[in-house]
Design brief:
Blueprint (H helix, E strand, L loop, with lengths): L1 E6 L4 E8 L2 E9 L4 H15 L9 E7 L3 H18 L2 E6 H6 L7 E8 L4 E10 L2 E12 H14 L4 E6 L6 H5 L5 E3 L9 H8 L19 H10 L14
Length: 246
C-alpha cells in the first residue's frame, strides 16, 4: 500500500512516501513561514523521483494537530483535496503520536510535547506496545505543573524505568522534571522533529476518515473562537460547525 504523508504542524515541513511500514523516501525542510509554497514542490519531487502520480497513491495521511493553526490548515486542506478528488483513503494522525513514534525504548513513558509558551505545552504521554506508541496520558494543552502532576500520577499506578521527553521546550523545565525523582532523558535532535515517514507507518492501521470530516485538532480554542464566544455569549460548538461549505 503506497501512502503519501505530510506534516505541516510545526516549522519542520516533512513529506514521505511509504510502502506500508517501509519508508521509501522522506524529504524535510526547516521552514518557518512558507509551507504553502514548499509543500507542493516537495510532493512533486517525491512522486517524480519514484515514477508515480497522485492517482497511484492508495492512502493519504496528515498530522492533524496540535500545532500551528495556519500550518495545520495547509497540510490538512491539501490532503483533503487529494483524497476527495481521487476518491482515496485518508487518515489523520496526532502530531504528538507521530513525535512519540520516534522513540523505540521499552518500559519508558514517552512524553511528547510542543512548547506553547508561558510554561504551557501541547503534550501527551505514550508507551510502546508492539512497536506502536499507545496514548496513556491524553493529548491536551497543559501547564507544565499540570503535565508533570499527570506524569507523576500515572507512574504511581504504572511504574516505569524512565521517562523520555521528545519535542520542544522541555530542557528549560529540567529542575521541575528532576523533582519527579525518576530517571529521564530528552529526545535527540532527530527525534524532536516530526517525520512524515513515521506518520505513514502509523497510517497503516489508523481509522479511515471521510475527507469532509478531516479537521484540525488544535487542543485549545483559537483566538477567533474566544472572541466570538465573548461577543455572542453562545457556547462553543464542534469545529465543523464553524466551517461554511462552499
Amino acid at each position: 500500500m503506497k501512502i503519501l504523508s505530510v506534516s505541516t504542524a510545526t516549522n519542520h515541513l516533512s513529506v514521505a512516501l511509504n510502502d506500508g511500514q517501509s519508508v521509501i523516501i522522506e524529504k524535510s525542510e526547516q521552514d518557518e513561514r512558507n509551507h504553502s509554497e514548499h509543500l507542493d514542490p516537495l510532493i512533486n519531487e517525491i512522486l517524480q523521483e519514484n515514477n508515480l502520480q497522485l492517482k497511484d497513491i492508495d492512502r493519504f495521511a496528515v498530522a492533524i494537530g496540535p500545532g500551528s493553526y495556519t500550518g495545520l490548515r495547509i497540510g490538512i486542506t491539501t490532503v483533503k483535496m487529494f483524497a476527495s478528488i481521487l476518491n482515496k483513503d485518508v487518515v489523520g494522525i496526532s502530531t504528538l503520536q507521530a513525535l512519540a513514534a520516534s522513540v523505540n525504548d521499552k518500559d519508558t513513558l514517552i512524553v511528547a510535547g510542543i512548547d506553547a509558551r508561558n510554561d504551557n505545552y501541547f503534550a501527551g504521554g505514550y508507551v510502546n506496545e508492539g512497536g506502536q506508541p499507545v496514548n496513556v496520558l491524553a493529548d491536551g494543552h497543559y501547564h507544565i505543573s499540570a503535565l508533570l502532576e499527570a506524569v507523576k500520577d500515572y507512574l504511581a499506578v504504572k511504574p516505569l524505568n524512565k521517562i523520555i521527553f521528545v519535542g520542544s521546550g522541555f530542557t528549560k523545565q529540567e529542575e521541575l522534571i528532576k523533582a519527579l525523582g525518576v530517571p529521564f532523558s530528552y529526545g535527540t535532535d532527530d527525534q524532536n522533529v516530526i517525520h512524515a515517514g513515521l506518520i505513514g507507518k502509523l497510517a497503516v492501521a489508523a481509522t479511515l476518515t471521510d475527507p469532509d470530516q478531516l479537521l484540525p485538532n488544535y487542543l485549545r480554542r483559537t483566538q477567533a473562537e474566544v472572541d466570538w464566544h465573548k461577543k455572542t455569549g453562545k457556547p462553543f460548538e464542534p469545529d465543523s460547525n464553524y466551517v461554511e461549505e462552499v
